[in-house]
Design goal:
The chain has a seven-stranded antiparallel beta sheet, with helices on both faces. It is α+β, with helices and mostly antiparallel strands and 193 residues long. α3 packs across α4.
């Protein structure tokens, strides 16, 4: 069961950006930006990120990440997953060799029944904390509002992309199948005109 969940999360992670990374041969327009060679990375490795995140957010700790064997021969990213609880996972795409983060994701798989609201609230609390981690100028209220605006926009456009400075937010709302927030670095270009 645990192995199937990890594989499912790995597939969701690669498809979050609306890509078909397993297609033969993949075209550049269908590959998620973080999977492409030379894609930007955050400066931290996953252990460094986790330590900083847990220090900043003691009420929303992230358990240790475990690598996932996707069975793919291509070595463009290394995938790792951290199970927070039965309905909430964090996953990441890492640059091979350096272990630096190319994409960091939070996935909530809805529970049906009595615990669904509490499960959703906890997931949104973690997602807002993730937004605050990468945008430390935001307060708890403004990160909640940022998440709400992303979720609202994702109801219209699936997946929804929003670039803000050096960050790209990706929301994929698949209804009963789950909701994923991804945060990725983008390469900023100077306009010399």
């Amino acid at each position: 069961m645990k192995h199937r969940i990890c594989r499912w999360l790995a597939c969701c992670m690669l498809l979050t950006a609306g890509s078909a990374v397993f297609a033969d041969p993949p075209t550049a327009s269908k590959i998620a930006p973080y999977v492409q060679p030379g894609a930007p990375v955050f400066s931290d490795t996953i252990p460094q990120f986790r330590e900083k995140f847990n220090t900043m957010n003691p009420d929303t700790p992230l358990p240790e990440y475990r690598t996932v064997d996707t069975g793919q021969v291509q070595n463009t990213v290394v995938l790792a997953v951290s199970k927070i609880n039965d309905s909430l996972y964090s996953s990441t795409a890492l640059e091979p060799g350096t272990g630096k983060i190319k994409s960091l994701q939070m996935t909530w798989v809805p529970l049906h029944g009595a615990g669904e609201k509490e499960s959703r609230d906890l997931a949104f609390h973690y997602m807002a904390a993730l937004i605050r981690f990468f945008s430390p100028q935001l307060t708890e209220q403004t990160s909640d509002r940022k998440l709400e605006s992303l979720l609202k926009a994702a109801k219209i456009n699936i997946p929804y992309f929003d670039a803000e400075g050096a960050l790209r937010y990706v929301i994929s709302d698949q209804g009963d199948k789950g909701l994923t927030l991804a945060i990725e670095p983008v390469r900023l270009m100077l306009n010399n005109s």
